Amino acid sequence: MESLALQSLSSSCSLSSRTSLLHRSRPICKSPSSIPSNPASHPIPTLRSSPLFLSKPIVFSSFPNPRKSQFSIQASSSPQPQKSPSPNPSPLQGAKPIPLIISIAVGVIVRFFVPKPVEVTPQAWQLLSIFLSTIAGLILSPLPVGAWAFLGLTTSIVTKTLPFTTAFSAFTSEVIWLIVISFFFARGFVKTGLGDRIATYFVKWWGKSTLGLSYGLTISEALIAPAMPSTTARAGGVFLPIIKSLAISAGSKPNDPSKKKLGSYLVQSQFQSSANSSALFLTAAAQNLLCLKLAEELGVVVSSPWVSWFKAASLPALVALLVTPLVLYMLYPPETKDTPEAPALAAKKLENMGPVTNNEWIMVGAMLLAVSLWIFGDGLGIPSVVAAMIGLSILLLLGVLDWEDCLSEKSAWDTLAWFAVLVGMAGQLTNLGIVTWMSGSVAKFLMSFSLSWPAAFGVLQVAYFFIHYLFASQTGHVGALYSAFLAMHLAAGVPGMLAALALAYNTNLFGAITHYSSGQAAVYYGAGYIDLPDVFKMGFVMALINAVIWGIVGSFWWKFLGLY
User: What pLDDT is attached to residue 2?
Assistant: First the structure.
C-alpha cells in the first residue's frame, strides 16, 4: 500500500509538470524529497500526517517573480528522471534486542555457570534460573509484562521444569481473581461518576483554603480507597481531573510558571498522600492482596485479613495522612494560600451533575455489601473473593456495568496473566526448597554480625524500600522480592505476622518516591504541575518522614496489638 501511494504521488506530480508546459499560470506540484515511513515518531508535521495531504495534493501557486516563474517552467520543460523516495527503515518489531539478551543471559548464567548448591535439586535450580530471567525481563521490559511472563511460563513447561497443570495452578488462585474483580469495581466508580461526586463534596466542605482543600481531597481518597482498589484509577479517574479544574480556575496552568500558584502543591500533596491511603486498607491496592497470598505460601496466614490489615495500619497511616499535607505546605508551599472560590466551583459542579443517579445508588449498595462481607465474611463462611463476585454480579445484573466494560478493562486481564505466572513460580520455588535455602543462607550471614531480630528487621525493611528505585512497578517489586525478603525476615527470627504486614505496607509507601515508581506516579507527574527534581526531592523527604512515622508510631501500635 505504501509503494502504491508513493507511485500515485509521483504520477500526480509528473502530470502537473507536463501540464505546466501548456498552462504556465497553473501551479506546479513539488515532489517531496522524502516521506518518512513512521510519521508518528517525528515531532513536526509531515506530509503523511498533514490533513491537507489527505484532502488534496500539496501545490505551490505561481511565483510572483517572473524570473523565478520562467526558471521553474524551463526546468519543468526538461523533465529529469525522478528518483523514487527511499523510505526510512521500518521500526523494529518484537522484543527489544538488548533487554532481551540481558534477561535471557541472567537465566543462562545462573543455570549453567553458577555452581548449584548441594542442598538444591536440579529441578529447583532450573526453575530458579527461569524465574530470575523472568524477573529481569519485568525490570528491563524487552516485551510487555504479560507477554514476557507468558514466555517464562512457556519456558518452564517446554523444558519440563514444571508440568502443565502445575505451571497454570495459580490461575485458580482466589486472591488473583479478587484483584481482577477489584479492577472492575474501580471501573464502576469511574463510569457512574460516584467517585467524582464524593471528592467534589469534600472540596465543597473543606475548600476555602489551599491547605483545607488538600485535606478534603486526601480524606475523600482515604474513604473511597477500600471500595476502589486501584490507586492509579483513583488518580487518573477522580482526583487529577478535580485538581486540574481547581488549579486552572485559580490561574495555575500546567507546564507554566503559574503552576506554583496552586496546582503543584495539590498534585504533590495528593501524590504523597495516596501512598498512605493505599496502605490503610487491604482492598485499596492490588499489590496488598498479592502480598498476603505470597505470605500464605511461606506459611504466614493472616486470619480475618481485611480487619487484621486495617487494625495494624490504622494508627500510623492516619497519622501520616494528617501530617503529609501540612509538611508539604511548609516544604513545598503554594503561592495561593486561600481558595474562596473553590467551594462555589464545587457547588456549581454538583449542580451540573444533578441528583444522585440510580446507578450511583446501586454502586453504593454493592460496595457496602462487598465491604461488609470482607469484614464479617469469615464468620459467615464467605471468602473475600466470593464477596467480590457477589458485588460484581449485582452490578452486571442491574446494568451498572456490562460485559463489554469488563472485557475492555485490559489491565485486569493483563494482571491476571502475569500475576498468576509470578505467584505460581514463587509457590513452586517454595515447594522445591529454594526459598528455604536462600533464607537459611541470609540468616547465617546476618548472624555473623550478631544482629538481633529488631536490627535485622530494620536493615531488611530499609533494603526492601530503597531497592524500589530500580523498579517501575509496585506489583512487579512484590512478585520479584516479597517472598525472598519475607523468608529472610523469618530466618532472622522476626515474627511472621509483623514481617509480612510491614513489608506489605512498605510496598505502598515506596509508590511515591519517583515519577516511575507506580501507576499513579506516572499519572500525577504527567499532569505537568511538578518538575522532575521536585518529584525525587519530595519523594525522598516524604520517604524519611513516613519511615519515622511508621517506625515509631507503628512500633508502639504493633506492640500494643501483640504482633510481637
Answer: 39
